[in-house]
Each structure stands twice: as structure tokens, then as C-alpha cells.
Amino acid sequence: MLSRFDYTAPVTSREAIADLGLPGTRPLAGGQGLLTAMKLGRLAPPRIVDLRRIPELQGVAESPGGGLRIGAMTTLTQLADVPGLPERYPALSEAAGAIADPQVRNRGTVGGALVDHFTASDLAAALLVYDATLDVIGPAGARTVAMTHFYTLNGPDLATADIVVAVNLPAPVAGWRTAYERRADRATLAPLVGVAVSVPAAGGPARVAVTGATRWPALLADLPAGAEGAGIDVGPDSRFVDDDVMSAAYRAHLTRTLIGAAIRRAGSRDA
């Protein structure tokens, strides 16, 4: 049973920020994480602020520079169904379509998938490899946060009343090919290891991002052209999660394996 709480449904981001000022208040996006935690008694917020009625958090549109602006309240299904996404941003399309199951993707949102304190976020790896940025607004005003700076040891770089408004993708870079590979936990369907790569058609270092395997989604050092298999340097085992599911050494091994698979698949695509 849920504990008692106040509920608001603001229609502007400024109203939402004001409503989020009460200590312990939680924003409601798709509700997949929040409502489950409340049902299990892990959270008992005094107020829930529903973000679904705020227009600026909705929709997917072309950016002036040829990129893409994705509203934070866009569902994962809506993202996966964006026309042209598989051709322009293959790794993002693959990551969005791989998350959990259709029921979760129909309710879960892009913003919610990024701001929950999850070690494993399929979207995060893809957005990191595309060098995406986030539009964030809060009591201190609006700011832009690079995905490379968004995750920290304590979770996403957000203040209590901050709201992610949108994700911004730069225009695809000519000659670069991308792919996303993952291995999922059979129970939760979350990625135990997820890897996004961007490979230049003309040769040169590949850009690689990982999720699930490390303590938070992160870019790895660029890989030299021709790196493959056991020769891929992913850093020391100490950077990888070591738990009852999988050892750090095996996560490092699986990361190298998935990087190799993603690079081969990206390389097979038209530039």
C-alpha cells in the first residue's frame, strides 16, 4: 500500500521547480522506478510532482544545426519509433529498443531513464558516444550539462529541484558508424554490460562508452584502429563492478568482447 502524499501536475517548468522545493518531494515521469519503490516501502515522498503536462518536456524535433532535440518526457517507445533514427543514430535506436520490455518502454521516459541513480542505463552509453548534452532547469536557472559530466560517484549531477528538460544530439558526423551491444540480466532485463561505439570509416581511434559494467556510465579511452579481442585495453579491473552477479574481471572480459562485436557491426554499415 502506498503512503499518503500530496500530488501536483504543473503546466510549466517553473511551477514544477516551485513544487519540488518541499524536502523529499519526487518528480513523476513514467513512474516505473518511483511507484515501484513506493509500493515496496523504499520511498515515502510527501509530495509527487507529475511532469506530464509540461509542453517543453514533450516531443522530438530537428535542431537548427541538423541534430535532434528529445524532450525528457518522450517515452522510450516514442524515441525508438522516431523516423530515420536507425539510419542517423543507430546506437541510440538499438539502445532504446533494447530496454526492458514493451510495457516498460511504453511508460518509461528518456529523462527518467537518465536521472534515476542506475549503474546500468542503455540510453546513457549511446548518448555518451554521440557527445549529447542535456538542458537542465532549476532554482538557479537554466544550464546545459554535457553527458560526459552528468554522472558522478553519487549519481546524476542534479540539485533537488532540477528538471531535465531535453536531450540534445549533435548532427551525425559524416564517415562515422555506430552500434550498441549489451548482455542483460535475465531477471531485471537491465544491462549487465552495455557498450556503444563510434568508428571512423577512414580508420583512426574508435569512441567507446560503457554502462552496467562500471560504477556509472562512462566513456572509455579511445581505442586505436584495429583493436580487437583480448588486446582491447579497458583499464584496470578495479574500475568494474564486482558483485554477486559477476566478478570485476569477468565484467572487464565481457566489456572487451562486446566492444569487439560492436566495432565489427558498426564497421559493416554504410558510412
TrEMBL record:
Keyword Flavoprotein part of the UniProt annotation: yes
Keyword terms, alphabetized: FAD, Flavoprotein, Oxidoreductase
Highest taxon in the source lineage: Bacteria
SUPFAM superfamilies: CO dehydrogenase flavoprotein C-terminal domain-like, FAD-binding/transporter-associated domain-like
Domain (FAD-binding PCMH-type) ranges: 1-174
Keyword Acetylation: no
InterPro entries reported for this sequence: CO_DH_flav_C_dom_sf, Diverse_Substr_Oxidored, FAD-bd_PCMH, FAD-bd_PCMH-like_sf, FAD-bd_PCMH_sub1, FAD-bd_PCMH_sub2, Mopterin_DH_FAD-bd
PANTHER family, sorted: XANTHINE DEHYDROGENASE SUBUNIT C-RELATED
Protein name, entry field: FAD binding domain-containing protein
Biological source species: Actinoplanes sandaracinus
